[in-house]
Amino acid sequence: MSRSIVLVDVEELPALRRSRAPLRLLDVRWRLGDRRGREQFLAGHIPGAVFVELDRELAAEPSPAAGRHPLPSVDQLQAAARRWGLRQGETVVVYDDNGSMSAARAWWLLRWGGVERALLLDGGLSAWRAAGGELATGPELAEPGDVELSPGHMPTVLIDAVAELPRNGLLLDARAAERFRGDAEPVDPKAGHIPGAVSAPTTENLTADGRFRPDRELEARFSRLGARGGTVIAVYCGSGVTAAHEIAALSIAGFQAALYPGSWSQWSNHDDRPIANGP
Question: What is the reported pTM?
Fold first, then answer.
């Protein structure tokens, strides 16, 4: 992938909206432990955007065995996408108000389901406001869509393969460094990381204004972490949400990576899985 296949700038969005090509805007406001996403959407969003509920529409039911945000089935995702009004062949632009940390989950899932023109709005709602973009309030209703999805267009890796991957590949942990080291674990049952993983916090993908770093900076960052052409790369985080952000950054940098959907929330619930601590 390249930057233009992953991202769209706020300066480009008005032209996309004026073009004859159909466009769907999705607002994925979500933060861990904060359930005010819909409330915040209603208070102000990019006109025409439809709200997406991450916990309900971008994940299956949580469980200790599968993790906090298991992948939805393709049928579940397709039903949600049709509720958002998504039609076959449309371009989709996804945003949030948190550096694309939650929007990337929708971006990755739509790509996984076969939507080729799924893009992240670089900088999200903050960049839109900074550029003088207007906001709408209240709900946005969409006519039901007709999109047809199929699974497997983005790679995934399951728990047994993750355990073996560091021997011959690169396993990146996208959580905050203190969670990787095991200094703190505010959500999941055990602290630490998967043995052999490399700490790669998603926050380091972004500039101070919440946009993705330039391509060369991202390429240099992941190269320092061990990425090379032909390297098998997989990414995990707490529950598979911000790992999608890391995959977007890797794609911009020219690397393909698989998502470990269960992530630490699955691994740490399995007593037979080893845990490492420290840097």
Answer: 0.96
